[in-house]
Structure of diguanylate cyclase:
Amino acid sequence: MRHRDLAGRLLLEPTRPPDEAAGPASTQVCLRWPVPPRGPLLTRLLALLLGLFIPAALSVAVVPDEFDALLRRADDVKSADPRAFRSMLERMEQLTSAASQVQLEQLRYLQIYRMSLDGQFPQAIAALRELATEATDVSTRFRATAFLANNYAGTRDFAAGLDALNQALAMLPAIEDTNIRHQGYLAAAILYNQAGQYDLALRYVDITLGEPASGRSRCIAGIMRLEALFALGRLPSDARGLDGSVEECERHGEQLLSEFVRGFQARVLFNGGDAAAAARLLESRLDAVASSEYPRLIAEHHALLAEARLALGDAAAARRHAQRAIDASEGVEFSLPLVTAFRVLSREAEMRGDAASALAHHRRWAAVDRAYIDDIKARELAYQLAQHDSLQKTHTIELLNQRNKLLELESEVNKQAANNNRLAIAMLVVLLASIALWAYLTKREQLRFRRLAQTDALTGISNRLYFSERAPQILEECAQRGRPAALVMFDLDAFKSINDRHGHACGDWVLAEVARRVSALCGEGDLFARLGGEEFAILRAGADVETALVLANRCREAISSIDTSLAGPRFSVSASFGVAMAAPSPGGSLDALLIHADIALYCAKSEGRNRVSVHGVAECPRSPDGTPANSPSPPAKA
C-alpha cells in the first residue's frame, strides 16, 4: 500500500529492524500508495496517509511465547502483507488473557496501525493520543507520539504535528536503542521537510549520519538531505557525488529510493547545462521506473525528461513526456512534476506557433504553480503559528508559576503582622502588571501576524491572499448599493529580461517603485494588491469605464516615467493594462472579473504592450488627452 498527500508527495515509513533471528538490525522504508477510496472526498484523502513513522524493534521483557512471537511477526509483515497482518491481530486478540501489560500496549499500537490501514484517521489519532499518555513502556509512548506527529502531518495539520513531534523529541534521552533514536530523527526530518523547514530537517539528517547507523537509515537520511538541499537550491554541482547514495540504497534493497536519487542526479546534470547527459540517464531508467508503478516517481521522471528534451530541441519528445507526467499525476491537485509538465507544454506550443495551446497550457501552468507556491507558504505559516503558540504557552506557564509563588508568599504574609500585608499587595500589583504586559505582547504579536498575512513583504501593499478575501466583500457592497466596480489589472512588460540583464535586486527595486507610484494614484477606497511576480491589480468601487481608463492610463504613464538610474543601470519600464467592469447587480463573482481583466491584459500584451485594453469594448475608448487609450506611450528617453 502506497501513500501520498494532497500534492502527490510520497510518504516514507521507517519500520523496525528484524530481530536477531531474522538477521542484522536495519531500518526498512516502504513507499505506499492509497487503498481504494471510499467515503467523502476528504475522508478518502486522509485515508491515503498511513503515517510516516512505523515502530522500531519491539522490546518485550517476557519469556518468549506464542503471543510474543505473533507480536514480532505481525510487526514484520504489517506493511508487506496486510492480509497476514490482520490474521495475526485476530489471533492475538484471542490470547489477550495471557499477555503482559507491555505486550497489550504493543498490541494496541498495532491495532491503531490497522485503523490507519482502514482510513479511520480521526479514530487512530484519538487512540494514539490516549496510548501516548497512558502507556507504561517509554518506547511505546515514544512510538505512539512520533506516529501521532506523522499522522497529523499526513492530514496537513502541521501545527498539531509539530507539537506532537516536540513531545516525542523530548523523550529521546530515555530511549537507549540507537535504531529507535535514529527513526525518531528521521521522522523529524520528514516532518520538517513537509513543513518547509529544510534547515531543521538537515540538522536531524546530520545527527543520524554522524552516528553509526544502519544502511537503510543512511539511505533514508540521504534522500531527506537531497530533498532539503533541492528545496534550498543547494544541490551539489557534481552528479557523480550522488553515486554513493545510489549504491547505499541498492545495497540494502531500496531500489525505489535509488531511482529517486537518480532523479536528483539528472537535476544536477541539467542544472549544470548538460541536458543530453541528464536525458541519457533518465531514459536508461525508464523501464525500471515504469515497473515500479509508483505514480509520483513516474511523474517526476517524465517531467524531468520532458524538460531535458525541450532544452535539446526535441519538441515532440518533450510534449510526449510532459503528457506522461500529467497522466501519472491524475488525482493530484498540485505538485512540482505538474508545474514542470505544464511549463514544458506551454513553451513547446510557443515553439510550434500554436498560440491557443500555449495560452491554455500557460494558464494551467500558472494555476498549478500558484497552488504549489501557496501550499509551500501555507506550510511555512503553519510552522510559524506553531512556534508562536509554543511561545505563548511558555509565557502562560511562566505567569502561572509566578502566580503560584505569589500565592505561597501571600499565605505566609497572612501569618505575619499587618505591615507585611503591604508586601502582598505589591506582589499582586506585579502579577496584574505581568498579566497586562503579557496580554499587550500577545495582542501585538497577533496584529503583527495579521499584517504579515495581509501584506506583500517586498512592496508593502496588499498580497493576493488579502485581495482574495477583501475583493468579494467590496463587490458585494457595490451590488447591494447598485454601484459599478472596476478592476484594473496590469503586468510589467518584459520583466524577466530586467532580472536577467540587471539582476534580481534591480528587479525588486522596480517592483517596489511601481507599487509606490501606483499607490500614490489610488484613492482611499481602492484595493491595490500584488497578485504575484510582476502582476498587480486595483479594484475601485463606484468607478465607470471612463474613470477606470483614466486611472489605468495615469498608472501606465507613472510607470513609464520611472527613472531607473536611481537603481544603477538606465532602462525603460512599462506595463500592459487590462480593465474589466463589474455590473451593479448581485451575482457577480471575483473569479469572472479576474478572468475578464486577464483577457483584456492579454489583449494589451498581444497588441504591442504598454497600453490599456478594456474587456468587451470593440473599439478602445480614448484617454482624457484625446489619444486612443490603447495606444502605446512614447518610448522612454535614454
In short: The first helix runs from residue 41 to 47.
